[in-house]
Design a protein that fits this description.
alpha+beta; endopeptidase fold (from Nostoc punctiforme); six-stranded antiparallel β-sheet; four-stranded antiparallel β-sheet; elongated; protease; Phage lysin, N-acetylmuramoyl-L-alanineamidase
Length: about 250
């Protein structure tokens, strides 16, 4: 997989998200989340989790499966796809290096028979109450595991060469209190490498004097979280940058 956002490659969860959005089961503006975030997104949009009867699920075409225990299915720990009939699934998978149709129980067995969760649109009986909404913006972003910047234009408040790297500081992006001096700690934690941005105000990219910018990478995985500072960390041009979770959520 080179890019989970298509159109030439996906992963298991992004392919399900795009299918649900295309079918009108999720709103167009819904973020393309991961396997862990899929639980909540399904429950918020009319999908209900089915109960097994004597260890057996009476699956139908259109049902969605999620493998793994809720709370620990992010990344390779979980898997998801859609039933095309009672027994077979369509899913994006590593084993076949693409999107294939396979017998569910066969593939499930090959993968060690993880916990099965089945969701059906508008049917079934919920097995547990809906989770409480996130208590803060860091936890909200943690559900999705990524930031989509939507080509947002961000204001530059300072720029310098710090530890040999040309960087900018944006107070709104970082959640910093405006001041006349950017500290070394702020440059270390919140400095954005110019190698990962493009000026949005017409300034030539060969210049270091831009006043506003966009990130070159519009979707970024979140690599760290800090609730006390309302911070989440992303990688920009190979460097870890802490940004304000509220600003990222509203991007």
């Amino acid at each position: 997989m080179e890019n989970r956002y298509g159109p030439n490659s996906y992963d298991c969860s992004s392919s399900v998200y795009y299918s649900l959005i295309a079918g009108g089961f999720l709103p167009e503006q819904n973020i393309i989340g991961n396997t862990e975030g899929l639980f909540g997104d399904l429950e918020r949009h009319g999908w209900q989790q089915l109960k097994a009867s004597n260890g057996y699920f009476d699956t139908h075409r259109g049902d969605i499966f999620i493998w793994g225990d809720r709370g620990s299915t992010a990344g390779s720990a979980g898997h998801t796809g859609i039933f095309v009939d009672n027994d077979n699934i369509i899913h994006c998978n590593y084993g076949y290096n693409g999107i294939t149709v396979n017998n569910h129980d066969t593939i499930w067995g090959y993968n060690g028979k993880p916990t099965i969760n089945i969701y059906r649109y508008g049917g079934g009986t919920p097995t547990s109450p809906k989770p409480n909404p996130p208590a803060n913006d860091v936890d909200y972003m943690r559900k999705y595991g990524q930031v989509r910047w939507n080509q947002k234009i961000i204001k530059v408040d300072d720029h310098t060469r710090f530890q040999g790297i040309l960087q900018v500081i944006s107070n709104e992006l970082s959640g910093l209190t405006p001041s006349n001096h950017t500290t070394d700690t702020e440059w270390l934690n919140n400095g954005v490498p110019m190698a990962g941005i493009s000026w949005a105000d017409g300034t030539p990219n060969s210049s270091t004097e831009g006043k506003t910018f966009r990130f070159d990478q519009d979707v970024m995985n979140i690599v760290d979280y800090d609730v006390p500072s309302n911070g989440i960390a992303v990688m920009v041009a190979g460097y870890k940058v802490w940004v304000d979770a509220t600003f990222a959520r509203k991007a």
